[in-house]
Sequence to fold (482 residues):
Amino acid sequence: MKHSMYIDGKWVKGQNFFLSINPATEDTIAEFPSATSDDMKRAVDSAEAAFDSWKSTPAPKRALCLQKIAQLLRERKEELARTETQEMGKVLKEARGDVQEAIDVFDYMAGEGRRLFGHTTTSELQKKFAMTLRQPIGVCGLITPWNFPIAIPAWKISAALVCGNTVVFKPSSDTPLCAMKLVEVIEKAGVPPGVVNFVTGSGKELGKEITSNKKIRCISFTGSKETGEWIIQNAGLKKVGLELGGKNGIIVMDDANLRLAAEGVIWGAFGTTGQRCTAASRVIVHTAIKDKFEKMLWEKAKALRLGDGLKDTTDVGPLVNKQAVEKVESYAQIGREEGAKLICGGKRTGLKGYFFEPTIFSNVQKDMRIAQEEIFGPILSIIEIRSIDEAINVMNGIEYGLSSSIYTQDINKAMTAVEQIEAGITYVNSSTIGAEVHLPFGGIKHTGHGREGGILGIDEFSEMKTVYIDYSGKLQKAQIDD
Fold:
């Protein structure tokens, strides 16, 4: 079935189309327009024309639209989850969680419509009032990935809208159907024409237009480090928020609850088939329990069942596309060539679909490529350490800094990790995945900059204005001695 773009409140047909493929079956499930830069310009013009009216709409009234979006998502949760499993591949229970996350973030951001806090403070001068207030930025270009095709757009769109911005939304070409269904909900909720525009097609062509178009004042991008670097180099003075991935680690100390740690590592490494920016790609294990823990991981990984995510018997779904399988397969070969010990997995499986076995390497050295580079697939590296200091050194010895975890019963080790790990997120006795929408999400180093979620998500899509009101009736000069 051929679908359309959404520009200025109208569903717009395209001339050329690309296919959306079910990664479990390789069947075509939809066709979407391959938009041109001219299509993107029309979307930007529409967003610009709608901005003044949306900006002047009181924030609590903007929030009513977000509340309606959340309610409609609740009503369509199962339908949307099944669409996500068919288009992206993750197992159905995880897809339901993705939609629930979108519901939660629209609910949360609707609440911000009654806050959008600034600050009041004292002035250094008499009879002078000082405060700050929030203002929208303008037209926001939102570029989203395929691995959370409803939740991540929801994080960006909800915050952008409640702050009074208008939006041009460009989703991944791997999951345009999920994005379209979210936009259908937004339209039905009564968001005015032009406030949200939806354009599909080439990331290279459309991303270039988003980055260079002077009418776009803000860019929010989740995706690869290389693309993020290109955006920074070409965006000029736009406000830019970037979330560019991770190489996340879980420390397992010798005093850890090993059953709990094994569950967390398996969930972190192989949930969403390892296709999360917060996935656990490294497990940093104390030498005293390494052999025992390695066996526990092997037993759990071998028990995981691959298959279509719509089936109740499936634990791990497919990778998103053929290129992803080839990339993961190449890293499995790199691990062998580097001298790591393959414990299980290491190969693609099945005659149809983009499936790859859950894979574990042991005896991994911290400077190996499989321990340094983001693979974005079901490959886990076991790295042996002898102390908490060595563990933190290994944890920090990468270019990324998104999520991290430590399993220990020792509060001193836990707090040392919390204090010294270089990451935007640290979990204690839990896996590296499981962000909550009312808390900031993001990382440091090459993971990017900016935060989504919570009040810092509002910061991403608003500007602070400082206001001084002098009622002294005379010229007062700050910092000038009289």
Remarks:
- The longest helix spans residues 92-112.
- The mean pLDDT is 97.
- The chain has 15 helices and 24 strands.
